[in-house]
Amino acid sequence: MRGRRALIAGLRLAVAMTLALVVLPALGNPRADKPTARDYLVFSTVLTADCMRHRGQLRQIANSHAKRAIRVVLMAYTGATRAQSPSEFTLAPRSEPRALGCDRVSGLARRWQVEKAKFVTRSPGTQ
Question: 28-66 pLDDT, tens per residue?
């Protein structure tokens, strides 16, 4: 009986992951032939001494578009707790990655979720 329950739970998890990773993103972008600003955002990780103290890595974000700047709004999560306010900034075309923070703090995983991303004309003095 226990094995059957575990099998059913595993199948439910597989279906949920398929929906989350394959089906829902395709539904969210009805014009898949035309890239959006989100398509040019690239997350990366780098080893740093500060983050290694927390057994983590430094999380970064960059704009990979060759000519257009992107205004991005990110929401940070530490464990299951959402940050009080989002981070908002402009990423220049093909600029160096912008540091977000360590992906682990005090034993809890941290992640950043893109709330909004749009192409903008960059004005002088923006970051």
Answer: 555 557 889 999 999 999 999 999 888 899 999 999 999
Three-state secondary structure of the chain? CHHHHHHHHHHHHHHHHHHHHHHHHHHHCCCCCCCCHHHHEEEEEECCHHHHCCCCCEEEEEECCCCCEEEEEEEEEECCEECCCCEEEEECCCCCCEEEEECEECCEEEEEEEEEEEEECCCCCCC
Residues 6+ apart with CB under 8 A from 50: 58, 102
The residue type found at 66 is A
For residues 35 and 99, give the distance between their C-alpha atoms in angstroms, rounded to a whole number.
25
Of the ranges 12-26, 71-85, 113-127, the best mean pLDDT one: 71-85
**What's the CA gap between 7 and 55, in Å, rounded?**
33
| Cβ atoms of residues 70 and 120 within 8 Å | yes
Rounded to an integer, what distance in angstroms lies between the CA atom of residue 87 and that of residue 112?
10
